[in-house]
């Protein structure tokens, strides 16, 4: 029996692919737990409304005990009114041969008005995650339009990259994903991101040592990291598009659930990765939305401090941060910031 008051979750692009994969898991309790009823506000534009309506019918037919209410909106101000969570998914996906940054012009304009609507009427404890691409810079745009909402409530999804890295590492070191700790995605949700295993452990054993043992030495492990692991994780989105013909859906929804669940519920198993508004940690310019190693403490993301970052890592982080700065300049020049 649910014990808590219903929590309101606004999902943009709810009639799209990721929206469809998200709604049923949220309603089942996978995101906020078995004690928390949810009210779902589905925001769409005209062409997605029928699809959102169909999803709402199916939600009703699923008889989820935790689902308190579903409402469909085509107006952002109404959709975010009273929202405790905003999952900003609605945006165009990229196609084959495109980089996510190519979507800035098409999608950037969506996130300013949504930031304004969040500022106008969302609940005091609003937590926002941008999923629509380019996710980091879209979160930056939304935050810039919500001056009354604390910066630390705006985030972008890099948990999918984190989960992808876990999946690749688990195979490489023959471990279960659940036994791997201390992995970090730094920077942008793009091909420049830096999946960093320097502090990773598998069942308590340092991953760099385990890789060296399995691959025949430290040099071979370094080659595997630079030539296979890092590009495979960073370009996994493109690999999915090439193989499947469209961008990731269920894994993106699952990562979004993981992100919000850990943000609210904590990270007892150690740090994860999320793109948050930089406070200047690790030399990332203040205000950029960049991925860091993060723990959730009392419902807030905190950057894990004190990690030694070697020259190789520093260079990789700097390259991704430079791309974020370029994206910020691009949206400034488009008048979106
Ligand atoms: N950050 C990540 O890890 C990650 C992973 C996968 C996909 N994505 C991105 O998520 C986005 C959505 O992907 P999808 O596969 O669900 O796409 P989709 O085309 O299936 O769905 C997008 C939906 O958004 C709706 N929409 C467009 N503009 C809107 C607006 N202003 N307000 C509300 N809804 C709006 C569309 O009508 C559509 O129904 C894409 O930008 C994609 O690149 C991000
Ligand atoms: O790669 C894409 O365009 C979609 C998404 O960002 C992904 O990482 O799968």
Task: Give a quick precis of the structure.
The chain is α/β, with parallel strands linked by helices. The chain contains eleven helices and 14 strands. It folds into two domains: 7-156, NAD(P)-binding Rossmann-like Domain (Rossmann fold, 3-Layer(aba) Sandwich), CATH 3.40.50; 159-328, Lactate dehydrogenase/glycoside hydrolase, family 4, C-terminal (L-2-Hydroxyisocaproate Dehydrogenase, Chain A, domain 2, Alpha-Beta Complex).
Oligomer: single chain
Shape, per Cα inertia axes: globular
Residues in helix, %? 40-55%
The spatial strand order of the largest sheet comes to 3-2-1-4-5-6-12-13-14
Mean pLDDT comes to 97
Please identify the structural class as seen in this structure.
Answer: alpha/beta
CATH superfamily of the largest domain: Lactate dehydrogenase/glycoside hydrolase, family 4, C-terminal
């Amino acid at each position: 029996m649910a014990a808590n008051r219903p929590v309101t979750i606004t999902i943009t692009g709810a009639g799209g692919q990721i929206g469809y994969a998200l709604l049923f898991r949220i309603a089942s309790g996978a995101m906020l737990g078995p004690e928390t009823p949810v009210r779902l506000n589905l925001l769409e534009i005209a062409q997605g409304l029928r699809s959102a309506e169909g999803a709402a019918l199916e939600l009703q037919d699923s008889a989820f005990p935790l689902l308190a209410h579903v409402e469909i909106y085509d107006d952002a101000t109404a959709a975010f009114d009273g929202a405790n969570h905003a999952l900003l998914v609605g945006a165009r996906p990229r196609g084959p041969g495109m980089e996510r940054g190519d979507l800035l012009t098409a999608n950037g304009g969506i996130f300013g008005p949504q930031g304004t609507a969040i500022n106008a009427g969302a609940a005091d404890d609003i937590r926002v995650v941008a999923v629509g691409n380019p996710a980091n810079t879209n979160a930056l745009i939304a935050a810039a339009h919500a001056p009354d909402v604390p910066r630390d409530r705006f985030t972008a999804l890099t948990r999918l990259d984190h989960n992808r890295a876990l999946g690749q590492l688990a195979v490489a070191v023959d471990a279960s994903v659940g036994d791997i700790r201390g992995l970090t995605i730094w920077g942008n949700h793009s091909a420049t991101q830096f999946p960093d295993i320097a502090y990773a452990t598998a069942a308590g054993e340092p991953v760099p040592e385990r890789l060296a043992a399995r691959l025949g030495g430290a040099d071979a492990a370094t080659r595997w990291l630079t030539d296979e692991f890092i590009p495979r994780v960073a370009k996994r989105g493109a690999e999915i598009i090439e193989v499947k013909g469209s961008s990731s859906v269920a894994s993106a929804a699952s990562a979004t659930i993981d992100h919000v669940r850990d943000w609210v519920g904590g990270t007892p198993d150690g740090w994860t990765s999320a793109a948050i508004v930089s406070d200047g940690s690790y030399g990332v310019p203040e205000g950029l939305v960049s991925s860091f190693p993060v723990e959730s403490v009392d419902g807030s993301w905190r950057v894990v401090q004190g990690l030694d970052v070697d020259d190789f890592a520093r260079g990789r982080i700097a390259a991704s941060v430079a791309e974020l700065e370029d994206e910020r300049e691009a949206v400034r020049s488009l008048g979106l910031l």
